[in-house]
Design goal:
Layout: H1 2-36, H2 39-78, H3 81-113, H4 117-124, H5 131-144, H6 147-163, H7 168-172, H8 174-188, H9 196-222, H10 234-267, H11 271-306, H12 310-337, H13 339-346, H14 354-368, H15 371-386, H16 391-415, H17 417-443, H18 449-477, H19 485-509, H20 513-526
Helix pairs in contact: 1-8, 1-11, 2-3, 2-5, 2-6, 2-9, 2-10, 2-11, 2-15, 3-5, 3-6, 4-10, 6-9, 8-9, 10-16, 11-12, 11-14, 11-15, 11-17, 12-14, 12-15, 12-18, 13-14, 13-19, 14-17, 15-17, 16-17, 18-19
Amino acid sequence: MAESKRQLSKFTAVFAGGTLISRVLGLVRDMAIGAFIPLVSRDAFIVAFRLPNMLRDLVGEGASNAAFIPLLAETLETESEDEFRRLVSALMSAMIVILGAITLLGVLFLPYLFQLLDVVKPVTRGKGLAPEEVAQMISLARWTFPYIFFIGLTVFAMGPLFIKKHYATPSWSPALLNVSLIACCVALRGYFPDPAYALVLGVWLGGLAQLAVQYAALRRHAGVWRPNCQLRHPGIRAALWLLVPVLIGQAAGEVNKLVDTLFAAALGAGSVSALFYANRLVQLPLSVFGIATSAAILPTLSQAAARADTEDLRDTLMHGLRQSFFLTCPALIGLIVLRTPIILLLFQRGHFDAADATRTAAALAFYAAGLLSFAWVKVTVAGFYAVKDTKTPVIIASLSMLLNIVLNFALVGPMGFRGLALATTISFTVNFVLLYVLLCRRFGPLWNATFVSDLVRVVAATVAMGATLVVVQHQVAGLFDADTLLARFTEVAGPMAAAGLVYLLVCAALRVPELGHFMALLTRSKN
């Protein structure tokens, strides 16, 4: 088990490292879009691009995690390598058909979706959108929607690569989209009457590039790179039985995102951007730590489930929860305390003005409060997927969706876009609690004295880190008279460096095991 934990930490670190590169480039991309794309065009593109990204989570990552990885793990564990490859090729064939149909239907029926803006406008009490702004969103949505085909196949390839313990390419390949968008935004925006269409070109180029490198890795590590058109393969039927409940459950989360987007758009200019940029900052630590941990433990959980090793399942789940807690807690506190300096440093320039920064900081406070819940939902859902139970997460996600929609209607009037962020945090927290309780009933208590002790020690280190942030931020804020780039950088980097050092020192003094795992990993990587 000790070796298993070291392997999980290694895989998580590899995936997190590549994801960090992608997410940092994502921040650069968002900075470029904020600076060079005017507010109305920026909001329109964000809404348009949200749609294929939502479906990516639905038929891409959701399908891979819930239906494909457990099935592929079982095939590799109990059958032959050749059968594993045949199954991968057959599933690839099915995904091409499914994604092609979704792309065609989406392009045809997208205009009808935007009619819902008129439905939510009275509830939001916002200014709403002019007809030409709605037409702009529809046009951009139709041009960006085919991205779902490219990214869906790209994400599908992650499943076989994870089974083969290859995490590097899936972790860094999303960076190609960010590079493409940055290049098109900076260099080509002047060639289009509406600069948002330069971003559309970037989406297409980035999607194709991700697909190419992912399938090159799939051929090298899994021995598969093209479909075999065996649509009658029994593995497809087995995957669909797992996939259909997941699609329903994932749809609940995606409906939440869609409702949030429509509410924000109906509030008027600026709300969409505020929620988007705040969410992007939360997604950085979530993707690097929470999603990386979930992706790393799922193959191990699936293989333990195939062996009917409940003890290994419990131990792996608790390790995943502790690891994400250790990594996520300092990020949560840092985002809340330093939200305004971070936003000023990263985004306030060009078309992203002081009003945009104020709105984004307000939204970030509510989103960041839910960061731990967001991460732990990813880990706990993996526990159900590993034993091929896709129905329970569906029920919980559906309840969470209903709660989020109710909270949206209740909070958006008095709180505006802040209410949408708070509703998301509350609904995800309830989602995690229910998933955790049900996992405990199935596998036994997902806690013990060591688990609780580790969490308490991490909380103590986080409290010390938070106090350091507040004190150092107050001291640094008085060093500069003018609002310069150096002043903004110092007001973020100074408190973060001091607080990070305190966190690591306190964790070391309290002998937090997760710190030891990663320090050992770094030591081995140098040898």
